Amino acid sequence: MQLRIRMKILHVIPTLDPAMGGPPMIAARLAAGQASLGHDVTMLTHEHPTRGKQIDLALKEVPFFDRVTIHQVDYPSCFEQIFGPGDQTKIHRVVHDAQVVHIHSVGEAILRIAATVARDLGRPYHVLLNGMLDPWSLQQSALKKKLAMLLGYRKMFNGAAALHLGTEDEKR
Question: Given 3-state DSSP classes, what are the helix, strand and coil percentages for the chain, each rounded to the nearest 5?
Answer without folding.
Answer: 50, 15, 35
